[in-house]
Amino acid sequence: MATLYVSPHLDDFRSLLALVAAEYCPSSRPSILTEDPPASLRSRSRPTLLLGAKEGGCVLSGASAVSWYLASKGGKAGAEAKQQSQVWQWLSFADNELTPVACAVVFPLMGMTGLDKKIQQNSRAEVMRVLKVLDQALEPRTFLVGESVTLADMAVAMAVLLPFKYVLEPSDRKVLTNVTRWFTTCINQPEFLKVLGKISLCEKMVPVTAKVNPAESLLGPPKTEAQLKKEAKKKEKLEKFQQKKEMEAKKKMQPVTEKKAKPEKKELGVITYDIPTPSGEKKDVVSPLPDSYSPQYVEAAWYPWWEKQGFFKPEYGRTSIGEHNPRGMFMMCIPPPNVTGSLHLGHALTNAIQDTLTRWHRMRGETTLWNPGCDHAGIATQVVVEKKLMREKGMSRHDLGREKFIQEVWKWKNEKGDRIYHQLRKLGSSLDWDRACFTMDPKLSYAVQEAFIRMHDEGVIYRSKRLVNWSCSLNSAISDIEVDKKELSGRTLLPVPGYKEKVEFGVLVSFAYKVEGSASDEEVIVATTRIETMLGDTAVAVHPADARYRHLKGKTVLHPFCDRKMPVVFDDFVDMSFGTGAVKITPAHDHNDYEVGVRHNLAFINILDENGLLINVPPPFLGMKRFDARKAVLQALKERGQFKDVKDNPMVVPVCSRSKDIVEPLMKPQWYVSCADMGKQAADAVREGRLRIVPDHHLKTWFNWMDNIRDWCISRQLWWGHRIPAYFVTVSDGSVEPGEDMDGHYWVSGRSEDEAREKAAKRFNVPADNISLRQDDDVLDTWFSSGIFPFSIFGWPNETEDLKVFYPGTLLETGHDILFFWVARMVMMGLKLTGKLPFEEVYLHAVVRDAHGRKMSKSLGNVIDPLDVITGIALEGLHAQLTDSNLDPLEVEKAKQGQKADYPNGIPECGTDALRFALCAYTSQGRDINLDVNRILGYRHFCNKLWNAVKFAMRTLGDNFVPTEKAQLCGEESVSDRWILSRLSAAVALCDAAFKTYDFPALTTAIYNFWLYELCDVYLESVKPVFIKAKEDSSCERPALVCRQTLYTCLEVGLRLLSPLMPFVAEELYQRLPRRRPQSDPPSICVTPYPDAEEFCWQCEEVDRDMDFIMAVVKTIRSLRSDYKLTKTAADCYLQCTDSATVSLVQKYSLQIQTLSYSQAVIPLTAPQAAPEGCAVAIASDRCTVNLMLKGLIDVEKEVAKLEGKRAELEKQIEKLSEKISKSDYKEKVPEKVQEQDAEKLRQSQTELEKVNEAADNFRKMM
Q1: Could you point out which of 80, 588, 723, 827 has its C-alpha 20 to 30 Å from the C-alpha of 185?
Q2: Is 779 helix (H, G, I), strand (E, B) or coil?
Q3: DSSP string, 698-722
């Protein structure tokens, strides 16, 4: 049996880690001893694990080794290789990132090391920084690796145990919500509880009693706080008076000079590409690169060249699309944007993600097609053109007539339709433009017609009269997605098209129906939010179990305005506890009432016509507008004494998103698709794994919709769209009874009128000459043509080569808000009409909202054209766009205010690459994206950093540099070379994994970190001395040559990693690099192979771990330099190391430390050696303390004087704030938010004062 030696100390987190890991392997749990291991084991540290004879009898020492062994035994070290690597990664994070800073801040509190408040404060800030990184990683996860506790959770939890117990106050934990949630989950696991018991989290950082210096006791009794304050004030006044006198004296001595003008803010440079280049020809790449990055320069000329070269076509690089490609095929169709104007940032997100994926698949060598297209957008387009007609010509579509109106729409489409394609090109979208299509094109229109006829002939499409969402303004049924749900908290007046005065909503009106034949004049009280609909009531419903109404079984109530007798029906749908427990039933104007009407065979009385005027009602209501009738009915009930009450009622009002009209449920004969069977097939496809939906939290929504799907109304009372190929049949034969519009038996469909006539003649068994036909005026719902888009674009129903090769597609990528409206319908119709799923996988991205979390809306002024972010626009330009839009004048003014608040200086030029990168960086699976346009600018600065890095690197490589034919190690690489190649390999692996899992934030982070924090900030800086030495000494040329090859590999591979996300800057810089094989390498980066993890397999954990330690040392030195304002002065640095291994490591990397920290000399010291006096001290890790020599480098007296002034200022602030907070009525009178701000200001001032005092004390020691 194994024996585990651990420390008895309750806060020895290393021993605790081993004990927790042991709890997870109950079958082979070791015996526990709280004592030092025997000397014979030659292990001085705890925990130590002595394995039994069965297990090999060896000794394991150290928390990592012991816990790994125990966790592996308990199956908690990762289920497979990938998870094991992730666990090891978190172990490294705990050891290298968390433990050093945690120890630095906790150990002084526990009395284990001396207290230096400055070091402690720096360490505390560093703890928070590291924990914020962890917090971000934990945001989408319950546990660090996989779906249950692993060694990763154990190790990191133990590393943060002491900070949670002694350092992290409630305000800190509030910032670290995800870490706190995860930590609480871990420590409450039974295995953790058994070892740790119940943990109390820190309420306030444990105070430390300062040691009294014996010399101070000789100075007499300490002064009181009041005395000290008085002295400080007196001193402050004297100092200010003295400074004033000195300033006046200086002024008298100085000659009078002119006032210098303030330097203007540095604007972002705009450099244009002015070399004449015919469209489609390759851009000049011989001229020198401009000094700085400019999007206008970089993005010029590349796209037409890419397009002309055919890089975006699946045929590129192969003899035919039909030939087998061992690397596979990738096909995706664009979610066709509406032709109604221009794209917004939501579309830009879709296209950034889709193009990034497309370019990645293309660079992987797959036969790749991303098919463009545009949607005719029935209602949206018709509304826009109708408004334009009315504004410009004062005409309605009815004034023009159907044919001329459709001509106007086509004319408008031809004028405006290209704008969307222009925007897509500007976004860098690598679409195959030769395959672009429009849903009203002949090819697609034929497919739509064919789909309708086949489904109608099969009985899947049928005619029925049911309730639909009706827009009186549009005179059309509309889909659910075109209905906005406006939530009201109570009585609200809303504007309604066609009404001068606003209309009242959000009230519940109660009134009474008299019971027929009641001697006591009995009445039943009901309530409604739409009082005008009582004119169409045909029953009153109560619950069967409601004792109050049992006596009314078989009774009727009387309508007050006509002789209608209405039955009292008993139905389970009634809520007995709501109101009086009695409900009015209007089957023709309410979805719930419709179902009751069907169940109880009630009369369906339609009281509204298509324009919202009252019909089938008695005078005086006949012909009234619906909301005028609302007032009239209320008044009439009052006059009859049957009105009871009106009160506020929270409710949801359905509003047409296109016309802003109030939507009415209306009984209309319409065309429907029977969805039950198709919905089941779509649900089964996902359940059986044939169709995958990512992220999987959308599965619940999918199954909920598919399992409870209702039939789909596909007819729209519009003129623009695919006219329904169905004909109403009239038979000139006495033996055939005339049919009704709602009777599907009298409707036939056909590809032509002749075909329809033949079908009708056959159905009614009469000669074709006896048949008269009337084609339905309605058009199909836009989603019907969108539903067959994945195969109609390839010529279905014709068996084309494109259809054979590219259908089914690979992926469908879109926003989660149209999962049902578009995705589900494509799946259903694909299975129905082709017998195949239209794609294998669905990736649903989040919905873009503005920086305030609001939905993008033109009336809010937050709909931003991607081109305005790319090229920049002034505030006046944004305002001008609103003036040219279809918004009402009031909405324009409101939108202008929104723009002014969000973009007071307009939108700066960010460029396409920065926009794409920002959108992908924001994309997290399953959440809405609150996109602040101003943050995109940060990624433009990243482009500039890339630009400068590549320019510097190219100068370093030199004109005669020739890269090796293959990227490989030569064996002579320096530690810096090996490290950057290890980081490059890690970036390649991270990018590969991120692409495969659609983890775009991980993708952008991996690339950003490699370029910015590893290549630019570390490697390029650390190798500068290598090249300088090579220039000075020719014998040092060999290391410089190896370094150049490494640098080239990093640039070339780094740009290939970046290319799918930032195609323009990647191409511009890549074209300037020499090629490994100039004769055979592809002409463009966009068709160059994407870096593969199998090729770049140089990741070395030991090198990474060593460099992590070195960078911790460098950051600590830099922090000290910053604290003491050593901006240009190099200082000697003494590094106190705990052991010889750390000394060796420091010596090995001394050049890197010296270069990166701008130190004069780096001197490692072993444990007994003391650093010289005059040093500033900071802890880099538990293995190394930094001592930075300051003596002789700074004017100590001047620095002390500065700090004294700062101290007086802070004391004044603290006194003022403390006075304010201590007032007796402060908590009652001051808002909570202001109280929080005051408390935070006080805490910050006190912390700053502590730092000032510590710094002053340190300086005095040097005097």
Answers
A1: 80
A2: strand
A3: GHHHHHHHHHT--PEE-EES-SSS-
The Cα–Cα gap between 314 and 312 comes to 7
Tell me which residue has tokens 């000139």: 732
Give the three-class secondary structure for 22.
Answer: helix
Q: What is the dihedral of CA 1105, 1110, 1111, 1117, to 10 degrees?
A: 160
Q: What is the three-class DSSP state of 804?
A: helix
Contacts of 403 (CB under 8 A, 6+ apart): none
Instruction: Report the candidate in 728, 749, 748, 750 with the shortest Cα–Cα distance to residue 739.
Output: 728
CB 729 within 8 A of CB 764: yes
CA 780 to chain centre: 34
Q: What is the pLDDT of residue 203?
A: 86
DSSP letters of 297-327? HHTSSHHHHHHHHTTTSTTTTSS-TTS--TT
DSSP assignment of 118-169: HHHHHHHHHHHHHHHHHHHHHTT-SSSSTTS--HHHHHHHHHTHHHHHHT--
Closest CA to 370 of 410, 403, 338, 330: 330
At residue 666, the 3 state secondary structure works out as strand
- Whether the Cβ atoms of residue 451 and residue 829 lie closer than 8 Å to each other: yes
What confidence score (pLDDT) does residue 178 get? Answer: 86
Query: Residue 843 forms beta bridges with which residues?
Result: 694, 813
Going by the DSSP 8-state scheme, the letter that residue 540 receives in this structure is E
Question: What pLDDT is stored for residue 303 in this prediction?
Answer: 97
Task: State residue 960 phi and psi, 5-degree precision.
Answer: -95, 10
Stretch (H or E) spanning 21: helix 13-23
Q: Exposed/middle/buried for 1193, CB within 10 Å: 0-12, 13-18, 19+?
A: middle
Give the integer Cα–Cα distance in Å for 1091 and 1184.
38
Pairing of strands 539-542, 507-515: unpaired
| Closest C-alpha among 645, 627, 636 to residue 508 | 645
Please give the angle made by the CA atoms of 645, 528 and 503, to the nearest 5 degrees.
90
User: Exposure of 514 by Cβ count < 10 A (0-12 exposed, 13-18 middle, 19+ buried)?
Assistant: middle
Instruction: Look up residue 1225 and give its DSSP letter.
Output: T
- Compute CA 648 distance to the chain's CA centroid, rounded to the nearest angstrom: 38
For tokens 């020691």, what's the residue?
A: 1261
Q: Can you give the pLDDT at residue 491?
A: 93
| Average pLDDT, 10 consecutive residues per value, the chain (1263 residues) | 85 91 86 81 77 72 88 88 88 87 84 69 84 87 86 94 91 88 87 89 66 30 48 54 56 44 48 91 93 94 96 92 92 89 82 97 96 91 88 90 92 82 93 95 96 97 93 88 88 92 94 92 94 97 95 95 95 91 95 94 94 94 96 96 94 90 93 95 96 92 92 92 96 87 93 95 93 95 95 96 95 87 94 97 86 67 84 89 73 82 87 95 72 83 94 90 90 91 96 95 95 93 88 83 94 97 97 93 96 91 92 92 84 91 93 91 87 84 88 80 87 90 86 86 87 78 68
Nearest Cα to Cα of residue 19 among 183, 158, 161, 165: 158
Q: What angle do CA 273, 277, 281 make, to 5 degrees?
A: 125
CA angle 609, 655, 652 (to 5 degrees): 110
Cα–Cα nearest to 490, from 509, 475, 507: 507
Contacts of 779 (CB under 8 A, 6+ apart): 378, 715, 716, 718, 719, 720, 721, 722, 723, 724
Q: Where do runs of H (alpha helix) occur along 168-224?
A: 170-175, 177-187, 190-196, 214-217
Cis peptide before 8 (omega within 30 of 0): no
Distance CA(637)–CA(797), nearest Å, equals 60
